[in-house]
Amino acid sequence: MDNYNMLIARLAEIGHVNTSIAVLSWDQQCYMPPGGAHERAEQLAVLGKISHEMFVDEATGKLLEAAERDAAGAAPESDVTLTLRAVRRDYDRATKLPTSLVAEIARATTLGHEVWVKAREASDWNQFAPTVSHLLDLSRQVAEYLGYEDRAYDALLDQYEPGMKTRDVERVFDELRPGLVALVRDLAAAPQIDDSVLRRDFDEEQQRIFGEAIIAKIGYDFTNGRQDRAVHPFCTSFGRNDVRITTRYDRNWLPSALMGTIHETGHALYEQGFDPKDDFTPLSGAASLGVHESQSRLWENIIGRSRAFWNVYYQDLQRQFSGVLDDISIDAFYRAVNKVEPSFIRVEADEVTYCLHIMLRFEMEKGMLDGSIAVKDVPEAWNAKMQDYLGITPPNDAEGCLQDVHWSGGMFGYFPTYALGTILSAQLFEKATQDNAQIVPDLERGEFGSLLAWLREKVHHPGRRYLPAELVVRATGEPAQSHSYLKYLNTKFREVYGIC
Ligand code: ZN
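Above: the input record for the complex with zinc ion. Below: its predicted structure, written as tokens.
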């Protein structure tokens, strides 16, 4: 075997360890009895250590170097070149950080999580502030070791959105913010929608049956996946042929499971849609968290909350919950699932206000990292921005700057991926409907195959061949932009709220 194939074989073995970790984690969250927690933590730690050691081992580095030498003359767009580029990125990132720093981060985030839980219970930022300062300090060290050209935040962002720079995010967000703030203001002035219909009594088993029928129709392959219950909905992959999703049911809030299921299905379709010829290679993977989120948001919001979708499926929903929705017109139901209301909690935010929550966090993180926002002043700065963007002020820290788990895990630079994915979902959908005139009429008949086929070709099959920015240009013909998203929101929500 030549160096390249030996490298691929070694990485495939590491991949099998990683998917085994995923199986154990899935079991932990879905079926493991509480008593299993201690041993499971040990099992996961050992496997995690094995995987990490196999990857950062000198043997991997030497094979990688040799394969790079052998492939020096290969075409820049060839799979060999693109594979080696992806592996080089992963390898450098995994080996640039000293073991002592990695260990210190593991310790600090484990403790940090406990501190955050208590601080949030007490709704007291001051209890959490020293932890945040310490984790920011560690993140600054991470940035220095990983290296960056312009700003330290670039290095952190790059961990989740490869190749993306802080200024790229700023460009997209700056373009979006004024239009979004204006739309939120206009919608707030219109008569509010009554969504109490969604809080009626919806039998959980009927929710499951309806949700699974919908996602099968969309294209989720139950031969290569399954859905279970978990406290937090997620999608996990044990390889392209076994991609699982979870959901949670709320008897008195229909969108929780229904929209959550469609969201996780969007993630799963991406994972099930990697090119079969890339199986067990580093190309069989997602381009980035942002691209992943573009898939979940596209199916959840642009499809699952569209009028075309409910025109076809609302009668089925009424039949599924016999009697519960009989007095509710499709128009009233459609408007209810698209209610917009500025609120304090990000994870409960609607389609229109969601990105403003993210922009706020992005600005807080940049400010804390470069020192322009003192950690002790975070609540004040947070609340001022909430007032600016959404016109509301959180009553306390728990409903404000302490609501998210991310900072306790040292995950600075992660938040922007949520908004980038949301913005990208509209850009991709717009281009798909331009490329294939059959997609819109198909959606109006409740058929999703032509849209899924476009996504398979442009987004899923490329896997990790391209950096997210390259993928976006290849798929849509232009860099990431927010005017498609703004246009989509304005068209849809001005109609929903009856304003022009
Ligand atoms: Zn998601």
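Notes for the reader.
The mean pLDDT is 96.
The chain has two domains: 2-147, 166-497.
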